[in-house]
Amino acid sequence: MSNEITQQHDEYKSWAEFIADKIKLAQTKAAFKVNAEMLMLYWEIGNSILEKQNQSGWGSKVIDLLSADLAKLFPENSGFSVRNLKYMRAFSEAYPQFPIVQVPLARSQDEFVQVPLAQITWYHHISLLAKVKDVAERAFYIAETAKNGWSRDVMLLQIQSNLYARDGKALNNFEVTLPEYQSDLAKSVFKDPYNFDFLTLSRKAKEIELERLLTQKITDFLLELGKGFAFVGRQYAIEIDDTDYKIDLLFYHTVLHAYVVIELKAGEFLPEYISKLNFYISAVDDKLKTPADEPTIGLLLCASKSNVKVEYAMRGLTKPLGVASYQLEQLVKENIDKLENNE
Questions:
Q1: Mean pLDDT of 105-131
Q2: Which of 18-27, 154-163, 183-192, 194-203 comes out lowest in average pLDDT?
Q3: Which one-letter DSSP state was computed for residue 271?
Q4: Do 165 and 140 touch, CB atoms closer than 8 A?
Q5: Engineering a disulfide at 195: which of 51, 99, 158, 161 sits with its beta carbon 3.0 to 4.6 angstroms away?
Q6: Is 76 exposed, middle or buried (0-12, 13-18, 19+ CB in 10 A)?
Q7: What is this structure's pTM?
């Protein structure tokens, strides 16, 4: 009898979770629809203001007058302030092709990508309008915010760290070491430089100290790495021919379906670092990778690097890996300089 009760409990729990998922999906769709309708209303108001000012010659005072009248008509709605009406005008002017923004694909002026504007909220949009002037860059942050579920504050942090200029910029050999379907995706995952400004040190920075701080601030670290990274371990032990080796940082990427080995170096890039990273990639492929996983990828993070030296060091390798630098809080940079000068 107890088995039957347990089975019924498990069936009910599964069914209740199914119902809850349905409710969450409906709520998400409803919120998305409300957001899209509000953006459409705001765009239309902004567009109408533009038309009156440009075609009818109405001056800027019309916004003050309209705001006052709307406040009387809709006293419960605070969304029609002078400031917000000006944002509506700017929104309409910035996106004449509403409800999408169309920008050229990278490295091409003949192919375009269309980014739906309703993927993010009005408050995301007004921050973007204020902080980012280039339309292609804004489209990038719209898509990334939607994909990663960033709050407005997180999006602003990404803008401040200049993610647009860093995204997909790590030097790599993915084109010759990964299948085509995996290569482009892997390129987009890694950036250069990485921004570790969330770290602070009060003494000389060594690699083991940086690793410890990165794992202590794993939420910030994962945010900087990007969507899809799942932390597996720090100083991850792996045995090879009766010898224990320790990988600095090991991750699994849920979109690439591959392990990612990260080696962290406190100083400048040296060619021999590539050999060690290649060794660890081979070990993970042999010891951890399953037939369902894609080839393991390596990422070497150095305080600084010479692109020419990196390209020479990667030439001829068959394992997929990338090399990028990282930026640290200034105190950390000063400590690293002192450390290198004392060695």
A1: 87
A2: 194-203
A3: T
A4: no
A5: 161
A6: exposed
A7: 0.71
Mean pLDDT of the chain: 87
Helix extents (H) in the chain: 2-55, 61-73, 82-94, 122-131, 135-148, 152-160, 163-166, 174-177, 180-189, 207-216, 218-225, 272-287, 307-314, 330-342
Per-residue model confidence (pLDDT) at position 213:
83
Residue 7: CB atoms within 10 A of its CB come to 10
pLDDT tens per residue, range 137-162: 999 999 999 988 888 988 998 898 88
Q: Decide if pLDDT at 103 tops 70.
A: yes
Please answer whether residues 150 and 128 qualify as being in contact, where contact means their C-beta atoms are separated by less than 8 angstroms: no
26/94 Cα distance (integer angstroms) = 31
pLDDT band at 78 (very low <50, low <70, confident <90, very high): confident
Q: Which residues contact 130 (CB under 8 A, 6 or more apart)?
A: none
Domains defined along the chain, listed by start = 38-162 (no CATH), 171-342 (3.40.1350.10)
pLDDT > 60? residue 230: yes
- Pick the closest to residue 185 from 326, 327, 316, 320 (CA basis): 320
3-state secondary structure of 121: coil
The DSSP-derived string for 26-93 is HHHHHHHHHHHHHHHHHHHHHHHHHHHHHHS---THHHHHHHHHHHHH-TT--TT-HHHHHHHHHHHH
Q: What are phi and psi of 96, to 5 degrees?
A: -65, -15
Residue 180: Cβ-neighbour burial (10 angstroms; 0-12, 13-18, 19+): exposed
What is the number of other CB atoms lying within 10 angstroms of the CB of residue 237?
A: 9
